[in-house]
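Section 3.1 - Work completed
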Amino acid sequence: MMRPPPMPGLRGAVCIMGNFSGRNAGDAAILGGLLEDVHRRFPGASFSVPTINPGFVRRQYAEFPVRPVALLPWNLSVKILGLPVWRAVRAARLVLVTDAILFDRKLLNPLYNYLWTLSWVLPAARRRGVPIVLYNVSLGPVRTPLGRRCLRRVLESADLVIVRDDESADLCRQLCPAGEAPVRGADCALNVRPADPRRVDALIAEKRLGFCARPVITFNVNSYLDVFLRGQATADAFAPLMAEVMDRAIAELDVNAVVVTTQPMDGAITRRVLAAARRHDRISAIANGECDYRDIAGLLGRAELHVGMRTHSLILAAAMGTPVVGLLCTPKNRGFLMSIRQHERMVDFEGLTANRLFEAVRDAWRERVRLREELGPIIAEQKALARAGVERLRPYLEPADREGSVRR
């Protein structure tokens, strides 16, 4: 059977696999941080990025030598499942799998899940001599036997595994006890470059955000109440709870509140929280789409404290030096907060009340100056960990006398 030719312009590129549609500011920040780190160390490298939104990748990362690979139906692709990904991987000098896409929820649905497709594509690429690196990834959760088999196939195809949290390292060792130990890294989004301060000032003025009048606490909520928290939380109960916490923070701490939405799917729960709040004169909101991930990082850096549910809202705030309080709506939140030694700033949903959450916010507010000082060296350490993985790519990207991929 004739093999399809590689896609023009992709030969020898670094193929970056993740969820890069532009909808999620956290995912966009991961790609931005990765490109910053790798391009700085290997300025001659070029990149291919499979995406359902090639226009976003082309515009957002125009400063880098990036070529989007369209994963659209007329390209013979159902999101990740299709010919474009195979061609891009086959033509690559190196494949980097990043982000948190290796989980088994809706495993056989390629519109939602990446793991099943990658469990076939990556081993096939390895057999052709294309090196695979899992780069600052979060692994899991995998809760089904088939999901565990798929993740094991991905791990066994990798030349190198760099994980961003201890839970991922433990899962890697469970699934591949005889393999090489995973390397500890950190999230690429930690090295995001925030927007220029003048751009942030303009956003604050344009959107009438409350940063100028009073100190600000930023809040972020998400829609995972029906995914990871079934039986522990519902939108009907949670929206008024979070609204009460914001109202109390405004009244008792004399702050303004800014609600930051990083993913459009969180819009519905965010609107419910805002509708339930009373102090609309002191609450404003902004969302990904109105601004990009660098803008959001810049805005979070202006806050005195961030209270977040989406992992990357916590990561972007902490990367800017802002103290955080994290609600443990996903396992990733616990992993990140433990990695930055903020155990006392974790709020579990079991038995959650407005009083308990407000007390956590109030305590962090009172300690915010000390927390900011303590976070400085911890975040610097994590940023260095995220960047350290670049040096491990030298065997694949540095030798000038090698063409194409590095063979095993």
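Second construct:
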Amino acid sequence: MMKTIIFKVNGMSCAHCEARITQNLSKRKGVTLAKANRLKNEVVVAYDDTKITPLDLQKIIEDTGYDVAV
């Protein structure tokens, strides 16, 4: 089932930061849309919850080098 989640993310300071997060999420199976916005400090992800979980998505963001505010 398709779902959308918004993560509050700290540490994005430039367009390159947005692109790194967006690219790392977008290449994962089950992610249909990823959009990072440094001005809002958030990342919006649309995903298939039968293929990937919110915790998996959070780990991808953290492994990219950014902090997810929970």
